[in-house]
Write a structure and sequence with these properties.
By secondary structure, this protein is mainly α. It is 78% helix and 0% strand.
Length: 639
């Protein structure tokens, strides 16, 4: 699904090539302008709070609708760049013809989904033209046109993808026709089955169980064929709703449901924290924390490994991404480790296993997403405070095994000790970067600003530092804004599509059904939590954190809270579980990144990784069954 590849080599149609390039440039410019205006708006919001003790309501409305447009248009652009998450395991396991068949089929399904958004979006636009927003007095129809724009972008990109594949494989016209026929037959069979007397009787006799089976089977099949996770979740939700409602009523509402799913002021923390982390990373400000970690970790046997863990923990608080941490820190540590004769499989394992620590240590985007999925039942700041000790425990588990391995194999303490003045210089250089976290957390705790405004403060502070240290040019800023908008678009589209799935789950009482099944297997919260831990550890292997949270939080959250589990405590359990999953072979994305940097084979890295996992699972059990480890700090601060 990469329109860019098709446009990069025009064959006899230069006008199409340049038109496509111009359209891509226009959309990317639109995204960076919207994100830039959002930064200015949140700055104004914070300023009015300080100056007049009354945040601007106008900017709040502007930010809400800008976020929706950023998410939907950014999602459309992500179809051009191929940035939407999927599970390509089956496609990669098939022979070339099978791969191309599924690529054609996926493009057609995505194109149909885009068509549904266009159809439903136009219906919503026409039905809301006369309605205006409360503060800005803008037409709601105009605001809802973001659905149409997103749908059109998906349809166009999927059409180009099919043409691109057909041009590359000119002998595949039969395969293309076969995939088209498979798509048509599948749609026809689903329509016939859903309207059949048999399905009506099954639904009438056991609605909840039937809906649960349909939701999970459909989503599993769509994920296995390699469809983008966001589209798979939305379509599974639509088909589940179709068990009770006529499809002619469901399909036109899909786009508006997705639009409303993003209409939350709380989601603003995501793009701003992502942008702040990207600014710190791209301008070298986060690199100062690595120097500090080298000073701290250099006094323990296997010093480079401990430096790696500490650097990932510090760096992760700014990037919020396990992949970014594994890439940035691994790129620095790996050549030094190789030069000093360190075991490279162990070095890679240490880098991979410690990279997700920053996803627990605040400010963490994963914790923000969890808070929003639970409707604020777990506050963002309480989750932030609760994440410190579990994040440190995850890192300490890696350091304990690294220390034991170093002692066993004769690794000495690094003899090159920096002087006192050098240590002081490194610390002073790192202080401005460290202050980002201190200012944001202290400001939220002290009531100086909300968690959302805190994310804006993070952006403003990182921009000021970047300008002060001359690490930012206009071209670099453009790149940072565009990349941040694309990452944000991918995540927000996933959230908006999951809204359709959550709607279907609520409509069919699926969480209650799963809860009943769980309580049939286990009758106390300790066993239920153990089962959930096992499920999440398994699910985390093929699935990234964001989609896994969006799918399983609405299912498990009502179950555990009914059993008396604190919402904040359960949020940390979920993030810890899924953070381990992104490192677990054979699919772990962070593990792939760490291995690509070091050049080690996954099989070689798995051996030293297993004892680290065993310790981290022990840490998970402590966090699960000793809630005070997680809740001590939030309770101490009155949260």
């Amino acid at each position: 699904m990469i329109l860019d590849e098709h446009l990069s080599a025009p064959q006899g149609n230069l006008s199409l090539h340049w038109a496509g390039r111009a359209a891509m440039r226009l959309v990317s410019t639109f995204l960076l302008v919207v994100l830039g205006l959002m930064v200015l708006a949140i700055g104004w919001q914070i300023g009015t709070r300080y100056l007049f003790n009354a945040p601007s309501i106008i900017t709040e409305e502007f930010l809400r609708f800008s976020l929706i447009w950023l998410g939907l248009v950014g999602a459309g652009y992500c179809f051009i760049t191929g940035q939407h998450m999927n599970l390509p395991m089956l496609i990669e396991a098939l022979p070339p013809r099978g791969q191309r068949f599924l690529q054609y089929l996926n493009a057609m399904i995505c194109g149909l989904f885009g068509g549904v958004l266009v159809w439903g979006g136009l219906t919503s636009v026409l039905g809301n033209l006369a309605t205006v927003t409360p503060m800005l007095q803008l037409s709601m129809g105009a605001m809802l046109s973001a659905i149409v724009v997103c749908g059109l972008m998906i349809v166009v990109t999927q059409a180009f993808e099919i043409v691109r594949l057909a041009k590359i494989n000119q002998a595949d016209w039969g395969l293309l026709a076969g995939s088209f026929l498979a798509c048509v037959i599948s749609c026809a069979l689903i329509a016939l089955l859903w309207r059949s007397e048999f399905m009506a009787q099954v639904v009438a006799s056991n609605l909840e169980l039937t809906s649960t089976v349909v939701l999970f089977v459909v989503s599993l099949v769509l994920l296995l064929i390699g469809l983008p996770i966001s589209v798979a979740l939305a379509l599974a939700g639509v088909l589940t709703l179709g068990l009770q409602l006529d499809m002619s009523l469901v399909l036109p509402t899909v786009g508006e449901t997705m639009f409303n799913g993003l209409d939350s002021f709380g989601f603003l923390a995501l793009p701003f924290f992502i942008l702040a982390g990207n600014i710190m990373n791209a301008t070298g400000l986060a690199g100062r924390l690595i120097d500090l970690a080298m000073v701290i970790g250099g006094r323990i046997p296997g010093s480079l490994w401990h430096t790696n863990v500490l650097a990932n923990m510090l760096f992760g608080t700014l990037s919020g991404s396990g992949i970014a941490s594994a890439s940035a820190i691994g790129g620095i540590i790996t050549p030094v480790a190789r030069q000093k004769g360190y075991n490279m499989a162990m070095t890679t394992a240490v880098n991979a296993a410690s990279a997700p620590c920053g996803m627990l240590i605040p400010p963490s985007g994963a914790l923000v997403v969890y808070s929003l999925i639970t409707g604020g039942s777990a506050s963002i700041i309480a989750l932030f405070m609760a994440g410190y000790l579990p994040g440190i425990i995850m890192g300490l588990c890696v350091m304990i095994y690294a220390w034991w391995y170093a002692r066993k194999n004769g690794y000495e303490v690094d003899e090159a000790r920096p002087s006192g003045s050098e240590v002081l210089r490194i610390f002073i250089r790192a202080v401005p970067s460290l202050l980002l976290v201190v200012i944001v957390i202290a400001g939220i705790l002290g009531g100086a600003f909300t968690a959302i405004e805190g994310s804006g403060v993070a952006v403003i502070y990182s921009l000021l530092l970047a300008v002060l240290y001359r690490g930012l040019t206009l071209e670099r800023l453009r790149t940072i804004l565009t990349e941040s908008a694309l990452v944000t678009g991918s995540i927000l589209f996933l959230i908006s599509c999951s809204t359709v799935m959550m709607w279907s789950m609520t409509f069919a009482s699926i969480p209650e059904t799963v809860g009943s099944l769980l309580t049939m297997v286990a009758d106390n919260k300790f066993m239920v939590l153990l089962i959930i831990n096992i499920v999440l550890l398994i699910v985390g292997i093929p699935m990234d954190m964001a989609p896994a949270m969006l799918i399983f939080t609405p299912i498990f959250f009502p179950v555990v809270t009914a059993l008396g589990v604190d919402p904040v405590h359960f949020g940390i359990i979920m993030v810890y579980n899924l953070a381990m999953g992104i490192v677990t072979p054979p699919v772990g994305t962070v593990l792939f990144v760490a291995c690509s940097i070091s050049g080690e084979r996954i099989g070689a890295v798995t051996r030293p990784l297993m004892p680290i996992f065993a310790l981290q699972i022990l840490g998970l059990l402590v966090i699960t069954y000793v809630p005070e480890v997680t809740l001590w700090l939030p309770r101490l601060l009155g949260l």
